[in-house]
Design brief:
- The protein has about 575 residues and is an alpha/beta fold.
- Helices cover about 45% and strands about 20% of the residues.
- Strands 3-2-4-5-6 form a five-stranded parallel sheet, with helices on both faces. Strands 7-8-9-11-10 form a five-stranded mixed sheet, with helices on both faces. Strands 14-16-17-19-18 form a five-stranded mixed beta barrel.
- Helix 18 links the parallel strand 13 and strand 14.
- The mean pLDDT is about 95.
């Protein structure tokens, strides 16, 4: 895979001015300028991200109508169903509203669908089933905006429906009693990047205000909302929405909430993962520890247990659920590794490095985890990858998950190949599909042919965008700490990516590490300064780096590794090349 390194341009005078005004290192000044902060006075407000920066919930389109309807249903004693989604965002959204309505003493239950049998979004069969159980009111969370037909079924049954969602719209809006959505047509909410959990939090906030009959909510409601900010932070990070504007505020304060006042289930889970021992959390702790365990439940058909973990007030049950989800996550990892090995074997047997895309299929592959594997392979090989889980008995259609690896438009390509598919959906970078097994080979040919024709050689080069260049000697703990203040890092606010040239690999230091020896550990030195570097998922680099002749140039994220009380600067290696091929 070809890569092009590009360092973001900067104005030396601006850097020097901000550096002097704020008394910060040059590289930190560059990072601030890259984020649009060019005045020393703006730095503290960016870093603090005050909770008061959240907009009033009534400003979010649909909340005044939705909160009034729900509050009246609570007062009337109606049986209310929270209908969620099976991913971490859907689970956290469900938990927030369930906890809120319980606080208001509502007659409420939640439903988290099974990924394999129920599918995404509202199901007409599940709506009818819950209607038969006496439910009169449905609140969808993190889904529903594209379920006009299913909501019509609920309305025909005499049920009231409130939709809360953040996803893309279908051809028509559902005829619900109220719709809460940050990008609702003909509205002008200033920030459309909220996830499902954040939308649910805003609705819960509005309900608490109604119940308090004041702008300032009751103490019990305030305690709940502060806990809910932590739960919403999980959904925000796990759903990979932009960490800007209100999302940045939610995650900044949500991380503190998770540390100081987690629900019982999360407290048990954080103890299991070692997070409870950390002095403070960052977004990566959600992204690599909490989010995957919740998502593992959804991927393996156990989403209700993920919601229960977030809402239980029973200490023993909280521990049981944390143990179960932790074990489920280990099962998920094993399944992923098995599918990954089989997929890589297919690539080696059926494809060459010149093929424009990989379409891989296997009997018995778990449809819940193939998206993770296809994403990993697309990133590794720098081209579109589709994994198709075929039914063992050959009776049911295959389920496919596609990722584009930064190249090509999946939505457009699948539209071109639609005659070979039962259905498909998604966007340019990620998509899903359903296909009959007897169509896989012809679909593979059509898909690869279209990708080949629609992308140029230039498109195949992956661009690595670098914030700034810095020598190893500049990477002091104090400088890294100042860089970390620009977090929480994630989508649209990535962790600082730096580069440096003419680095020497310490002889014999390049080694594989971790489960399955998937990762790399190596020591690098430059002008007398030696640091440890790690590269996740790049164990293959060990042999290459061990054989390299002469200095190399590296792209990396600088971090502080806090291990057993020792705090050391470390590099998370993203890319490297011989110095002769430097930037």
């Amino acid at each position: 895979m070809q890569k092009r390194w590009r360092i973001l341009p900067f104005d030396p005078d601006q850097v020097e001015q901000l550096e002097a005004q704020a008394q910060i290192p040059t590289v930190v000044a560059m990072l601030l300028l890259n984020r649009g902060i060019d005045r020393a006075d703006d730095i503290s407000s960016f870093i603090e991200a005050k909770l008061s920066g959240l907009r009033d919930p009534e400003n979010l389109p649909g909340i005044p109508e939705a909160s009034a309807l729900i509050y009246q249903a609570v007062k009337d004693g109606k049986k209310i169903l929270i209908y969620g989604d099976y991913d971490a965002d859907g689970m956290t959204a469900s938990a927030i509203l369930y906890r809120c309505l319980n606080l208001l003493q509502a007659n409420v239950a939640y439903f988290a669908p099974n990924r394999m049998s129920d599918g995404y979004g509202l199901s007409a069969n599940q709506i009818r089933r819950h209607h038969d159980q006496g439910f009169e009111f449905i609140i969808s969370v993190d889904c529903g905006i594209a379920n006009a037909d299913e909501i019509a079924v609920a309305k025909e049954l005499g049920m009231q429906v409130v939709v809360t969602d953040h996803h893309e719209f279908a051809d028509r809006l559902p005829e619900a009693d109220a719709i809460v959505h940050p990008r609702l047509p003909e509205t002008d909410y200033p920030f459309g990047g909220l996830c499902g959990a954040a939308v649910a939090l805003k609705l819960a906030w509005a309900l608490c205000k109604l119940d308090s009959e004041a702008t300032r909510v009751k103490p019990a409601h305030r305690d709940f909302l502060m806990m809910a900010v932590g739960i919403a932070a999980i959904g925000t990070v796990a759903d990979v929405v932009p960490l800007q504007d209100e999302n940045r505020i939610l995650v900044t304060h949500g991380l503190r909430s998770l540390k100081n006042r987690p629900p019982l289930g999360l407290a048990a889970l954080m103890k299991l993962t070692g997070l409870a021992n950390k002095k403070q959390f960052d977004a990566q702790d959600i992204g690599f520890n909490i989010g995957p365990r919740l998502n593992a439940a959804g991927r393996l058909g156990q989403a209700p247990l993920g919601v229960e973990l977030l809402v239980t007030d029973d200490q023993q049950r909280a521990q049981e659920l944390a143990d179960y989800l932790d074990n489920l996550n280990e099962d998920r990892k094993k399944i992923e590794r098995s599918i990954n090995l089989a997929a890589v074997k297919q690539i080696k047997e059926k494809y060459t490095e010149n093929d424009p895309a990989f379409v891989l299929a296997g009997h018995g592959w778990n449809a819940g985890v193939i998206g993770v594997v296809s994403g990993r392979l697309a990133e590794k090989y720098g081209r579109p990858v589709i994994l198709i889980a075929l039914d063992q008995m050959g009776v049911k259609p295959g389920i496919g998950s596609a990722r584009n690896g930064g190249i090509g438009n999946l939505h457009e390509t699948l539209q071109h190949c639609t005659e070979h598919l039962i259905k498909h959906g998604g966007h340019a970078a990620a998509a899903g599909l359903t296909i009959d097994e007897n169509q896989v080979d012809i679909f593979r040919s059509a898909f690869c042919e279209y990708i080949q024709e629609s992308i140029t050689e230039e498109d195949r080069i992956v661009e690595v965008v670098i914030d700034a260049e810095a020598s190893l000697s500049q990477l002091t703990p104090q400088t890294i700490y100042q860089m970390q203040q620009l977090g929480p890092f994630g989508e649209a606010n990535p962790a600082p990516l730096l580069c440096t040239s003419n680095v020497n690999v310490v002889a014999g230091s390049a080694k594989r590490m971790g489960g399955g020896e998937r990762h790399l550990s190596v020591k690098v030195s430059q002008y007398g300064k030696t640091l440890r570097a790690v590269a996740f998922g790049q164990g293959d680099w060990a042999e290459e780096l061990d054989q390299v002749q002469g200095p190399i140039d590296v792209v990396f994220k600088p971090v502080i590794n806090d291990f057993r009380g020792q705090r050391n600067v470390e590099l998370h290696l993203e890319d490297w090349k011989p110095a002769a091929d430097s930037i």
